Amino acid sequence: MKIDNVPLDLLIPNMLSATVYVIQIFILTILLSIPLGFLVALARRSRFKLISVPTRIYQLVFRGTPLMLQLIFFMYGPYYIFGFSFDRFTACIIAFTINYAAYFGEIFRGGIASIPKGQYEAAKVLGYTKLQTFMRIVLPQVIKNVIPATGNELMTLVKDTSLAQVISIPELFRVATNAGSKYFSTVPIVIAAVFYLVMNTVVEFAFKWIEKKFDYYRN
User: Fold this and answer.
1) How is residue 3 annotated by DSSP?
2) What 3-state DSSP class applies to 2?
């Protein structure tokens, strides 16, 4: 079957294979950047400037520069600086993880700051340690509060995976643009847009479900 001279029986399987890279980047970035983001949030709240100031600078750098440039840096920078280089996929995951951890760190920091100080004081009176207070009282509320912002970031992550093409990762958008150039057609780009929309629809519904699960925990 062809549309505008584009053989869909060849294009669709290629795009499905390329979508695997999108999913891999997405999942690995979540697994690595969310825990790192919590550590960044805690470091930002540290009363020790030797911890909080470098963390703030790190966030400024990685939130203030394009992810595309960061991908290029982690692909080629280590070779010129240290004499070794990462493979393309590893460089991609490192860049995405460090970039998104900076954003998640700010989201989580805001979530922690939104918890009234009175809850900390009440927990202290009840005999909770600082760790128990954070894990049993603060953390569940923080998770509930940051779900919408986190979901929004993850929908952005799905779209940002297209930037991996700058270091020649054969992901969905790269396959679509190559096919568009080959067949002189916009059909591959339109199909890629549908793929991204479907993936983001799944993410949105997943976070709606998670949000309902946390409805029992009201501030």
Assistant:
1) E
2) strand
- The pLDDT of residue 217: 52
CATH number, domain with residue 165: 1.10.3720.10
Q: Enter the tokens of residue 4.
A: 């505008």
- In whole angstroms, what is the distance from residue 52 CA to residue 105 CA? 12
Total structural domains in the chain?
Answer: 1
Residue 208, both tokens? 């709606």
pLDDT tens, residue by residue, 53-103: 999 999 999 999 999 999 999 999 999 988 888 999 999 999 999 999 999
Is residue 219 in a domain?
no
What is the distance between the alpha carbons of residues 206 and 204, in angstroms, rounded to a whole number?
5
Please state the length of the chain: 219
> What phi, psi does 24 have (nearest 5°)?
-65, -45
The closest alpha carbon to 177, from 161, 164, 192, 155, belongs to 192
Give the Å distances, CA to CA, from 117 to 7, 126, 147, 217.
Answer: 62, 15, 21, 18
Q: From residue 97, how far is each of 105, 134, 153, 155 by CA, in Å?
A: 12, 25, 13, 15
CB–CB of 19/172 below 8 Å? yes
Q: How far is 191 from 181, CA to CA, in rounded Å? A: 14
**For the whole model, what pTM was predicted?**
0.89
